What we know:
Elements: H1 8-18, H2 48-59, E1 69-70, H3 83-89, H4 92-95, H5 107-124, E2 128-129, H6 136-151, E3 155-159, H7 164-177, E4 181-184, E5 186-187, E6 190-191, H8 193-199, E7 204-211, H9 221-230, E8 234-239, E9 257-261, E10 277-281, E11 292-298, E12 304-311, H10 331-368, E13 374-375, E14 384-388, H11 393-402, E15 405-406, E16 409-410, E17 421-425, H12 432-446
Helix pairs in contact: 3-10, 5-10, 6-7, 10-12
Amino acid sequence: MKYTPHTPEDRKLMLERIGVKTVDKLFTGIPENIRVKADLNLPRPLSELEVIAELKARAAQNKDTGKLCCFAGAGAYDHYIPAIVDTIISRPEFYTAYTPYQAEVSQGTLQSIYEFQSLVCRLFNMEVSNASMYDCASALAETTHMVRDITRRHKVIVTQGVNPTHIEVVKTYAMGLNIPIQEVQLKAGVTDLDALKGMLDDQVAAVIVQHPNLFGTIEPTKEISKLVHSRGALLVVSVDPVSLGVLSPPGDYDADIAVGEGQSLGIPLSFGGPYLGILTTKKKFIRKMPGRLSARTIDKDGKTGYVLALQTREQHIRRERATSNICTNQALCALAAAVYLTCMGKQGIRAVAEQCLAKSHYLADRIEAVPGFELENKKPFFKEFTVTTPVPAAEIVEAGIKHNILAGVDLSSLNPDYQNKLLVAVTEKRTRQEMDSYVGFLNKEFGSK
């Protein structure tokens, strides 16, 4: 709890220095019609001791998430984080470091960024990775700027298999850039190739696909890639990095730009952030890539050194020449991902992915046997699957909390049309006992409905 020691005299002096007479004058730039005028019904003033007691009482009402068995996903997953990750990122030379502006002074920070880029390129089988972005949604949105500048075309197609929250961020960015966004429907749980073919024309800059998609289903990326490229457009794909332990990486099916949410790579759920946006591309598009790039070189004495080889948007770059408005990279989160990937290695990532794959299919088979529950479709999936439920999915999620089970994501929270659809995710952390208990809960509470 912070202590702010401003007395009435202090506030008066600050207002005088600013050049206004009252605090209200500070808000003259806010239109009257959007100011709150109603009585806020605030409680009586409290002492410091009373405030702390009140806050503790409210905090005690929170559910202990450490005791929840998590089957929720939709972009944020309960993966195991090796102890070495927290140990490394908690070192003071990393923990307090900010994005370097006099970059070459910060050799350790630049090396950690370089290692992150190198590891991501190997995982994605892409030629270039930037030094990271805020999160997957904003990384995906940044690609609209890229594809327009690369192709000189002005339209972008997004499949409805992309997370709706990400689509909203894409549309927000695109609106300011005057880039029309069109959505292509799904068929049997994956992108409708016939519909996509009918939408492609010589004004489409790119097609954005999520793989696996929102419903957990594996998309026909090779077919989509061929179709998109046949019309001169670019393919942008949003992937789950852990899935690349068993699924073909974006480079294998000729993706032009590939993004992902790095939270799965050693970053805790943390109620939604901070997370880590991954953005990779082909080398020929490097000048259109947002953010920054660390590179390895040698100095005049032949010693290895690290430099910021590319800075396409920072506070010290001219706005009109910038490729985006991102003004930092998630350096600490990127370091966590680099440590995780280094610790796990190629075989470790594959082992995690194989466990997710096997366990999710075990649970899907068990849930499908519960009366009233069935899988949304029979298409292949990785670690998430969508279940059609006999009651609104929100009721199942709410009931699960009482049993210390986070039953999944109620998809109607993302789209009101999905009221009876529950998205279930299974990571390597889930045990057979936990999955069987989950199925028992569904059977007991909803199996006869």
